[in-house]
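hey so u asked for the seq, here:
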Amino acid sequence: MAWNTLDDMDMAGKVVLVRVDVNVPVDNGRVTDATRIEVIVPTLRDIIAKGGKPVLLAHFDRPKGKIVPEMSLRQVWPALQTAMGTPVKFAEDCIGPVAKQAVTDLADGEVLLLENTRFHRGEEENDPEMSAALAALGDIYVNDAFSVAHRAHSSTEGIARLLPHAAGRQMEAELKALEASLSAPERPLVAVVGGAKVSTKLDLLGNLVRKVDYLVIGGGMANTFLAAQGHNIGISLAELEMAETAREIMEKAAKTGCEIVLPEDVVVAGEFAAGARNEIVPASRCPADGMILDAGPATIKHICDVFDKCRTLIWNGPLGAFELPPFDTATKAAAARAAALTESGQLISVAGGGDTVAALNVANAADSFTYISTAGGAFLEWMEGKTLPGVAALEG
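ran it, structure tokens below
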């Protein structure tokens, strides 16, 4: 990949339009988790230090081209000021005279937050007129929102075609981590893919078996693969209609030299409940009334042994019902091994996706991973091998 960073741009006296993702959880008008706001602070401070004036472009929720007061970015404005520790101004629109005047009035050292870009229909339509209206506000465009890079919108793709552009610090870190883990990884390379449904990750699995040396499949997805092998899975969560697809993926893996790691023993219970009575059985011997809720100790050892052999790990999805103890055992044990190998310098570990981050936090392993992506859809589409419009525009 080739893209400019902040270090490549002369920003002195320039208005810098920065696409950020501050689509954070809000309860009664107050931000309850400011993580996405806090991670953009280094980019904004660097722009100010280089003499630039940061003007923020962002969306909030899905107003579908209409002005919806409860979806105003005014709600995140106080949290942004707290995170920055410097003055932040707010404009009631993101294009037109109101926005233009707010940009004109911006003093050195200040930050300006423009109103929700999705209040205009042209944003999600990537309308050239919307892109031009945004571009007219500034001199340089910086994208620091990998989490929306899979969207070809005016503020993520269209504007980058009209102004000198660069990746922000968060985007730069994300792209470097992703390139190191799948585009040009140190091998052997292992991917962990968990979650409930094969059907939602077909493109992902199809891409990974061509690129990784080991593919660990866990969660409800693993049950579908076990059923495809002819094993009885009792009343476990599975997509039996996807059995033929699972077999095709296994055949493809065999041809490409990718070793698929499936549970060899499983933890089964009679109900989906925390603390439910359970037993460990071979994966081929699930009781007819049993529900597979986690991988067993032999499988955990196998997964950890694979990690020990590898130099790079990509992780998306838990290995079991991690939200229900004791069925979080496999996820926590595998995550702990990955964390230890990363800390010792033996493994480059990259993880992403909502459930993944939650699972690694439960395992107290997230801080030890090389990189944790906060992106959901963008991270998955990257793993699927798809071109992300927001990234491609930075390369142009």
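The first strand starts at residue 15 and ends at 19. The first helix runs from residue 35 to 38.
lmk if thats what u needed
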